[in-house]
Specification:
This protein is an alpha/beta fold. It has nine helices and 19 strands.
Length: 360
């Protein structure tokens, strides 16, 4: 009888395991890493650039390690519909439509048959600024497999408020710029964009609300893979230019997994000037991460203190700056190892800390 009971218990364990494992796998397979580039050149500002040699090494690594490069809009659709994505799915994006992308990156992408997205602000293109692609070049890039997204008419910082501007005035101004950019892209390229990249990666709650109202999926520059655990108005991307172009660092980011975030309590996205030690409480779903291995840093790579909280069923942790954060964009990001592989779960959160006069 005891043996029969043990057999029944073991069968129950197997059934429970079978029920749990697909959930874990589904979470791990519903994300993608989105890479963000600006200039592809060795003659442009290094902080915003990857050289052609760097870019080729990135593409070679993706091909040699069986990454699947998908159109960004296809990834968005899968995430919105809570559908699976192949593991190691990647999207390639370019902000600002710089001419070096057409001259240097496009031939490499076309030769390899890789899709990509270019986020466009129409104003400098209408002025025929030599640093930016022309309408003819954008038309060719679109014909060669590129998706065209929006950055607003003048790539205006979506979080900043003009002096003396009321919230409803700011909202109207930003909406007008988005609509004017849509009209320009419709007239010149025959497309209506559905993807939006926040200039400088900065956004406040008001901007995110507007992006949602206008039907866009939004993308910032906070670190991490895109997934259902992030807002569709502010999905993360990994920068692949400047100091982030190093292929060894990029390898870790390309294999990253989304931390299964249940909720983030972090207050307003625009901090008070006096708050240079912002706090965030991150509540998680259970998963295959090792929370005892959690490591957290700020955007400059300095340690951020973290305190484990919650229970086994509802784990959470609190974050607080150790040394105090400077004026400008404040980012905390955390990684935790996967319990059965060398991959890492990734989470990030951003605020903006202004000067006393509200600028930054």
């Amino acid at each position: 009888m005891i043996k029969a009971l043990n057999n029944r218990l073991w069968q129950l364990v197997l059934l429970l395991t079978a029920a749990i494992l697909p959930v874990t796998e589904a979470i791990a397979a519903r994300h993608a890493v989105i890479l963000q580039y600006q200039h592809i050149s060795d003659r442009t500002p290094p902080s915003k650039s990857a050289t052609l040699k760097d870019f080729i090494s990135h593409l070679d690594y993706l091909e040699q390690n069986n990454y699947k490069v998908w159109p960004l809009e296809k990834i968005v659709q899968r995430i919105r519909n809570k559908q699976k994505l192949p593991d190691r799915t990647v999207a390639i994006t370019f902000d600002n439509a710089y001419s070096s992308v057409y001259e240097n990156a496009l031939p490499q992408l076309v030769r390899r048959g890789l899709p990509f997205t270019i986020f466009v602000a129409a104003a400098p293109i209408m002025k025929e600024h030599p640093l930016y692609m022309s309408w003819d070049q954008l038309t060719e890039a679109h014909r060669q497999g590129g998706t065209i997204g929006s950055m607003g008419l003048m790539a205006t910082n979506m979080a900043k408020t003009l002096p003396g501007e009321f919230p409803e005035q700011k909202q109207a101004r930003l909406k007008r710029e988005l609509e004017m950019n849509e009209k320009a892209l419709q007239k010149k390229l025959g497309i209506k964009p559905t993807l939006f990249a926040y200039p400088e990666g900065q956004a406040d709650s008001q901007a995110k609300k507007l992006i949602k109202q206008m039907g866009y999926t939004g993308f910032g520059l906070q670190q991490g893979p895109a997934s259902r655990f992030s807002s569709t108005t502010y999905q993360p991307r990994f920068a692949a230019t400047g100091s982030a172009k190093n292929i060894q660092n990029l390898k870790v980011k390309l294999s990253s997994l989304p931390m299964p975030v249940r909720r983030v309590k972090a207050g307003n996205s625009i901090l008070l000037h006096d708050n240079n030690h912002p706090e965030a409480v991150v509540e998680l779903y259970s998963g295959s991460y090792v929370l005892s291995g959690l490591r957290c840093k700020n955007g400059q790579g300095l340690p951020v203190d973290h305190y484990l909280r919650g229970s086994e069923n509802k784990p959470s942790f609190m974050l607080k700056s150790r040394q105090g954060e400077d004026v400008g964009l404040v980012e905390y990001y955390c990684t935790a190892p996967h319990d059965k592989s060398s991959r890492f779960y990734w989470f990030s959160h951003t605020w903006i800390r202004p000067n006393e006069d509200g600028s930054w």
